[in-house]
Amino acid sequence: MLAGIQQIDEVEWEVPVGYVPGMRVPGRFFLSDDLAETLEPDAVHQLANVACLPGIERYSLAMPDIHSGYGFPIGGVAAFDAESGVISPGGVGYDINCGVRLIATPLRADDITQPRALIEELFRTVPTGVGAESSLRLSHHDLAAMMTEGVRWAVEAGYGVENDISHCEESGRLDAADTAPVSKKAFQRGMPQAGTLGSGNHFLEIQEVDAVFDPETAEAFGLSPGQICFMVHCGSRGLGHQVCTDHLRVLESAHKRYGISIPDRQLACAPLSSPEGEAYFGAMAAAANYAWVNRQVITHQVRQVLQRMFGIAYEEMPLVYDVAHNVAKMEEHSSERGRRRFCVHRKGATRAFGPGLPEVPAAYRSVGQPVIIPGSMGSHSYVLHGTATAMERTFGSTCHGAGRVMSRTKAKKATPGSEVRKHLLEQGIVVRATSDAAIAEEAPEAYKESDKVVDVVRRAGLSLPVVRLRPLGVIKG
Ligand code: 5GP
Ligand code: MN
Ligand code: MN
User: Which residues hold Mn(2+) 1 (predicted)?
Assistant: First the structure.
């Protein structure tokens, strides 16, 4: 372990105040010994820097998928007091409300006799890749409504069913959304990209439930051994990116007006109660709602393909759940000063609310919310459930994936995409992407081992495994 880091527990580590000058609270991260070599000193430095921001509550936190990001580490969680705290785009990321969802089906693994044909049909139907164009014809008014209403807009436009709404975190809508601080350029970028998968790390995957750890909870989530599911990973495309870019520019100078000194330019921020902070919050929430619609429209496209190819009724393909993993939200949590409101930033981290909370949909309330953790195109993904421990220790948060260990550039040099593709096919995984270069950047070797990362959050009690998923086919942007 790095010098100056103290072990708190089997898988929990403390970055003490003083690790970098100006820390207001300690840092805490979760990692096992066998993942210790994946820890980047830069990411720990970023975690410590976040602890310098005004209004931060208790700890600057990071999950075992920690790696360095823009300002905040990816895998980072930080809660800022609603009255005295700040909001920072670096704590959300460029892809606002990037997230994952899982769609269940009545299909079993042996129903997928022609995985290639299914993947190709999905690839034709779901617009994929950098320049992919939306099949939606939207007016400016539609786009604004989408950003204000979130998933409900999509369901009312015919892209889903009522039940999809309650099976999204926040019911697929942040009510802080305000389109006024969303620039014309952001609108322009968002218009042709609504309902598209995007590129890079974003994916649509056919998966089989290949292990069940908690049969009772699996049943509550509608999951059983051998079942086929579809996982969607995407976010707010160019719209979210533009919102982040626009507001970073403003916040880079705004913090000085409020007497906030930041240890890193990338931690540009403003008080939650300032006009600049409110403007970013409103625009960020609007982009988050757009991302939820995006995943909803893709879900509709997947359901249509399955309807056509397998004759399955639309209602037989329920949305298990949808989680955001790049977002800042107002939430109530316990603190030494009692129950208080915080702006919780999760940047490459997933909400993991435990049992009994009103935020968890009724169908899952007795067990805790579903937590969806993707692995890589060649490794396991998981469904876990949130816990009371997460509520106590991490503001109800857990990891969001395996996390990168290799940069895109390095991964591209390591193994050619054609070889990665061949190797995956030998394991029975069909990959379809816009280019072999895209496959190389996303090789399973570029990520930590998902089994090990999930084991850390299990041991820490931040979320508990329900089922494991094995990839059969992957579409990469
Ligand atoms: P991020 O949003 O940080 O780019 O990615 C989230 C996580 O998705 C990554 O940490 C990685 O573990 C996982 N991931 C990336 N590509 C794939 C894929 O093709 N399939 C699956 N199942 N997971 C992936
Ligand atoms: Mn993303
Ligand atoms: Mn993501």
Answer: 95, 202
